[in-house]
Structure formats: structure tokens, C-alpha cells
Amino acid sequence: MKVLVIGGAGYIGSHVVKELLDRGAQAVVYDDLSSGHKINLFPGAGFVEGDILDYPKLKTAMEDGIDAVVYLAAKKAVGESMENPELYAENNLIGAVNVLNAMAKSNVKALVFSSSAAVYGMPEYWPIDEEHPLNPISFYGFTKVEMERLMEWYDRLRGIKYTALRYFNAAGYDAGGAIKGRDRNPQNLLPIIREVVDGKRECLQIFGNDYETRDGTCVRDYVHVSDLAAAHVLAINRLLEGKPSAVFNLGTTNGVTVQEVAAATEKVTGKPLPVRYAPRRPGDPAVLVASNRKAETELGWKPVYTSIEDIVRTELA
Ligand code: UFG
Questions:
Q1: Pairing state between β 46-49 and 26-31
Q2: What pLDDT band is residue 263 in, cutting at 50, 70 and 90?
Q3: What is the distance in A from the centroid of ligand 1 to the CA of 244?
């Protein structure tokens, strides 16, 4: 099995490539290294340096005996997507069309796509299952919904089978330290905590402590990146077995508050973590927790990491 991993030098992509190689598959990384890192490329994987907006190059990469595509490359900062929608339209929407058109032209029929819990917007109930209405409140989330819709049509009209994986809060790093390149300008909670622990930031700002949750801070479902990577390989195998297109939530069903993440960090480091309470961040739902029942029953996926302390430990290592 030969898999083209678009965005394979990035945070989740590099873990997916590792998992593919560990399972004996062949992987070719397609990445423009705009946010991914050269250091994340594994010697056992092929590499094409290219942009998803470079359609001819993408199509050529697809024609190299590829059985399945994992498409991760995208802009992913929610706040930035509201300030610069043009950038997100170009990368996430034009990029998505390029991937689908290149697959249609090259006759590659299996696609695993990085979607997000951002497709749901403000949750109407939780745990959130895949039937929850799609109501994105960010341009980023909108781009993910649009790609899911495009994939439905390319399935119908071009027979491309897809799996959309709706990640909840991806966190942590490979426990064996295989991934060396970290996100530049991190915007998410755990990488920010790492910067505080490393002394690169004075303190963690906790955005809001007046939510209706057990300690007033937001509840999220942190899912370990190696568990996410395993789900991609299961999804590819499932598609190549001839199963139909599907959408899966990837989370642990465990809700953890920001304050609990801070406490877990203190346990791991044995030192106090300086925090400061700040106003709520616009657009943050109080609670975002997945139901992962469908992924468990139909994909055979079960997250290994269920404790936030274990996840934080891999983030800080
Ligand atoms: N937080 C802080 N301080 C920080 C950073 C984050 O208190 O410095 C809090 C946030 O308010 C939130 C939690 O930590 O309650 C997690 O925040 P992240 O920014 O790490 O993640 P989000 O839950 O906002 O975002 C995630 C994914 C997005 C996805 C979104 C869906 O990273 O890709 O869920 O709502 F779109």
C-alpha cells in the first residue's frame, strides 16, 4: 500500500507517516514546508516539496502508483480565519478542489481528510455525535464543512471514497520522541503551556473562569496525536477493503477543564505553573466533548491515551 500524505511534515501528518511506516506501508509526503518541518521527514518515506495550489505538481505526485491519499495540509488557526478569510479560502478551499481534481484525474479512489470539531459550532448537546447539526461559527470551520460536501459529490460523481475524521483537541507528541519539529507560533493550549514551562512565556492566560462548568473554565476533549494517527491508518484500510464513505468523530469522550490541564502540568513537572485569568475568548464554547462510539464500532478505533497527565507528559518531553 502506497499512501500520499499531503501535509506529511506537519504536526499530525508526521505522526500519520510514522504510523504508516510502522505498519509496513509506503508513504510519500507532499508538503510545502510552510508550517511543516524538514526534520519531521522520515528517511523511509518519499518526499515531494510542493504546494497544494500547484495543481500540476500535485497531479504528478498522485500518478506515482498511489493507492490512497491522506489530506491534512491546511490553515488551522480559528482566529486568523476570521481576520484573513481570503487566505483560508485559497489554501483550504482551492487546495481541497485541487486534491479532489488531481485524484479524479489520476484515478486514486481513497481519501482520508482532516476535518474538525469546528464543523459543529456551538454544541447543542454533548457528547457530540456525528448527527449533531453542522453549524460552524468560524471561517475555518466553514472550510471543513465545504470540503466534506465536496467529497460527497466526488464520491457520487467520480467514485472517490472518503473518510472525514473530525478531530477534537489534538494534543501531545510521539512518546518515543520521533517527531522533532514543533508548530511555529503555537496557538493551542498545550503548546502554549510548553512555552510557559520552558520559560519562553511568563504565564498561561486562562480565557474565562465564569463558564458553567465544574471549575468555571472551558471543557475540551484532548485526544493524543498518536491515537489520531492510528485512526488514519484504520480509515485507509477500511476504504481499501471497499467500505463506503463515512465521517467519524475522534475524541476520547473525556472532558477536561483548562484548570485541570494546568494541574496535570504541575503534577508532571513538579513545579507550579504560573497562570493568570483573562476574559473569555470570543467563539469558545463552554464544553466540547465527542462521542466516539461510531469510530469505535465502525472503525475499530480506541484511544490508548485516556489520561490528560499522560498526554501532557508527551507534550513536555
Ligand atoms: N486556552 C486558554 N489559554 C490559552 C489557549 C487556550 O485558556 O492561551 C483555552 C481555550 O479558551 C479553550 C482551551 O484552552 O478553552 C483549548 O483551546 P485551544 O485553542 O487549544 O483549542 P480550541 O478548543 O479552541 O480549538 C480546537 C482546535 C480547532 C478547532 C476547535 C473547534 O484546535 O482546530 O477546537 O472549536 F477548530
A1: parallel
A2: very high
A3: 32
Under DSSP, the state recorded for 42 is -
**pTM > 0.85: yes or no:** yes
Please tell me the predicted confidence (pLDDT) of residue 186: 86
Tens-digit pLDDT profile for residues 148-195 = 999 999 999 999 999 999 999 999 999 999 999 998 878 899 999 999
Whole-number average pLDDT of the chain = 97
pLDDT value of residue 189: 97
Q: Please list every protein residue whose CB sits less than 6 Å from any atom of ligand 1.
A: 76, 78, 116-118, 140-141, 169, 187-189, 192, 205-207, 218, 220, 258, 281, 284, 288
Query: Residue 151 has what DSSP assignment?
Result: H
219 Cα to the center of ligand 1, angstroms: 10
- Burial code (b: 16+ CB inside 10 Å, e: under 16) for 272-289 equals ebebeeeeeeeeebbbbb
One-letter-per-residue 3-state SS of 58-92: HHHHHCCCCCEEEECCCCCCHHHHHHCHHHHHHHH
- Give helix then strand counts, H and E, for the chain: 11, 14
Side-chain half-sphere of 132: how many Cα atoms within 13 Å?
A: 26
Among residues 11, 55, 88, 140, the one annotated as catalytic is 140
Residue 225 phi/psi, 5-degree rounding, is: -60, -30
